[in-house]
Amino acid sequence: MRTHFLYSLTLGLAVSGFAMTSVLLPADAAFAQKKKKKKKKKKDEQPQEQLSPEFITPYNAALTALGAKDAATTESQLSQAALVANTTDEKFRLGNAYVQLGGMKSDASIQRKGLDLMLDSGRVSPTDMPRLSSASGRFAYGAGDYALAESRLKTAIDGGYYGDNTELLYVDSVFQQGRNEEGLQLLEATVRRIQQSGAAVPEDYYRRGVRRAYNAKNTQATTAWSQKWVAAYPNKTSWRDALVLFRDASGFGSQTNVDLMRLMRASNALVSERDYAEYVENADPRRLPGEVLSIIEEGIAKGTLKSGDEFFGEQLGMARSRVAEDRSSLASGGASSRSSSNPRIAIGTADAYLGYGEYAEAIALYNVALEKPGVDSDLVNTRIGISNAMAGNWDAAKGAFAKVGGARTDLAKFWLIWVDNQVAASAAAPAAG
Fold first, then answer.
1. Residue 238: half-sphere exposure toward Cβ, Cα within 13 Å
2. Among residues 62, 88, 409, 430, which is most buried (max CB within 10 A)?
């Protein structure tokens, strides 16, 4: 649905140094001109407007009707004036009158016509040019004329006018013409300018970046804009949308995806049965019964999962039947982790501790795994970061995530953003109290 922009008669489109007044008729104009010739012309005197008698008569009649709020007569007289409007001054005055008429009738198309006449006349002052160009560009955007919108809105921005969503509509007019990469670059530059000004970037700028990048099938840009979004606006919706897009685009295996699902859980982004099912399948009750047990019970407590569901009931039963044995094996697993050269034993035991929420024990064994030959250090550092994050050890978590590379780089960046969110929230809490 396109947006139409209407402006106040006196506030939105007032022009500097210009008043909507009737023009002297020819005899009066000649008399006034003779009086002026008798006086020395001042340096700052405005040049005489070039208005023909043929234009003045219908134009003045239109202004009279406009003052009487007689829209039909105003429109009829302006149509007559338009037939003979040839000079710069005539087109400018005609345009201004059409803007007034459009405002009175709440007709965006008439206001747009008036603005275009004014701008194309060449009579608009440098002071008014940015603001009126923005208004014209917004009208063009609402009418689907994206090429003109781009041109007008760029003129406004180049003149330093940023109000009324000018920048966002300028960027979107580029997107609407199919130039997605250019649009994303312009949007990023706009976000930087707003940030440098000290103002808050509206959330819609980030959402638009995510959506446009996703529609262009640009996975890298989608992820980058998603990260910007959750960093600036960390909430359940932003985290949910960002991580689902990231999950669906990345096609991770279960070992990486379970760490993504852990982040979805931490950010309250698990909201559907599908989310919980994917988490359970990735964690696997045969491998991490403690984590599967806690996640299903959490989903039931929130009302997202039904206790009588066949799949979750089966997985819950399997997890419950294995928890006692799994817990009893952790001590021996820890000892074997230290003596074996195989890093998988230490990782597997640390994963179990992580699932039970015993973060100190998990961190210790992940560090043991890092000392083994052939270890996947990106996986292990991810989980050291997760364990520290869940324990509230923010600096240690950030240090671990900073070491992650390879296919897990962006996952680690998301975790780093989440940690930064928690640090910022913790700092704000005492101030709010």
1. 24
2. 62
> Dihedrals φ, ψ of 332, to 5°?
-65, -35
**What is the maximal distance between C-alpha atoms in the chain?**
112
Compute the distance between CA of residue 22 and CA of residue 32 in angstroms, rounded to an integer: 15
- Crossing angle of the two packed helices 409-432 and 394-401, in degrees rounded to 10: 160
Say whether pLDDT at 181 is over 70.
Answer: yes
- What are 279's two structure tokens? 């988490």
Asked if 380 and 317 count as a contact pair (C-beta separation under 8 A), the reply is no
Tally of residues, the chain: 433
- Give residue 225's Cα distance to chain centre: 8
Distance (Å, whole) CA 386 – CA 23:
76
Neighbouring CB atoms inside 10 A of 208's CB total 20
Q: C-alpha angle with apex 325: 323 to 331, nearest 5 degrees?
A: 105
Contacts of 368 (CB under 8 A, 6+ apart): 337, 338, 346, 350
Whole-angstrom distance, CA of residue 180 vs CA of residue 186: 10
d(CA 314, CA 319): 9
Dihedral over alpha carbons 306, 311, 315, 316 (to 10 degrees):
20
Q: What is the pLDDT of residues 259-273, one digit of tens each?
A: 999 999 999 999 999
Q: Give me the pLDDT at residue 46, please.
A: 58
Sorted by where each begins, the domain ranges of the chain are: 56-124
